[in-house]
Amino acid sequence: GVQTCALPICHTMTLASGATWQAPGKIGASALSCNGGAVTATDSATLSPGTGNFTWAGWVYSTTLDSTSRWIYSDYGSGGDPLFLVSQTTGNNFQCFFRETSGAISVAATSTTALAPNTWYHVACIRNGTTAEIYLNGAQEDTDTNAGLVNIPIDDAFTPPTFCTNTGDRKSVV
User: What is the pTM of this model?
Assistant: First the structure.
């Protein structure tokens, strides 16, 4: 496995089904090349929004822009209802999506910048209480609030946190 760290916490990541490291990376010598594969981590409370504030950030480089939704990071909780998802949408924007335990309450913040292929973007998804925020290259692009958004427990090993389920895209997550 590979270690990914947000110091002082590190997680072991496992490359599977064709995912490899490819040079160059935005940060460091290489970036994750999906190649139709995936990278998984062991579920952990440090990777789950739960009831608290939460931030996910990473550098994303897409070689393909089309009408296909591409999942950059996903983690489902028990039964598939609680969910945290970072994706490239069918409209070629980035989206941060949080869904709570019942599956009926969610928030989705979507970037407004038109994406260009073969370009690095820094994407940050923030859950601040009942609000989702998305930042692209350091600038806030959208927020969405739902007062019912309380608990997103995705650290129960229902599905492992997964990076990269899209063919041809490269990602470097820091």
Answer: 0.81
